[in-house]
Design a protein that fits this description.
The structure is a single chain. The protein is of the alpha+beta class and about 170 residues long. It has 2 helices and 8 strands, in the order ββββααββββ. It has helices at about 50-60, 65-85; strands at about 5, 10-15, 25-30, 40-45, 105-110, 120-130, 135-140, 145-150. It has an 8-stranded mixed sheet. A hairpin with a 2-residue loop joins β7 (about 135-140) and β8 (about 145-150).
Length: about 170
Amino acid sequence: MATPEQIEGVAYEVIPPYDTGEWWTGRVSLPIPGGDDVPLVIFTYLEAAATDGRREALRRALALTPAVRGSVEAMLYEDYVQIRDLLDPGAMPEIAAPADVWAHARPIGLGIPEHGDVRHRHFSVEFRIDWEGHGTEILFRDGVPIERAPFGSTTAPQTLDANGGAV
């Protein structure tokens, strides 16, 4: 294991991934409820971990605004409503409004994909949610949440092409 390095003031360690290459890992504090100590993974090779694209994606993740928080709440609440409508409501926690999701949703991971040479900076936040067992993941583009998908989906890819699409 390599000596910890820092990117944007966050200490990282290099770990071997499940396939080839290396991933950078660390822990960060996200400015959302429950975001005090969230695992971080930068999906990349060691020599590319501190590129400007990844630095900017990390900066944007660490600086989420209250307006962005409201968008995340709305996306998590939409997920809750969709699941609630499919299942027995008695088996679900009762969540009356988007702002109430934080009692039932916790960020459990921040992922920064390989960017290549793209115009946009992407990252994803994974959430453990009480209304179903798989969790959900929200993909951000340039600090704005753009898509929600089940945890571990391909919505938050590890590698993005030059146009910001998954490869």
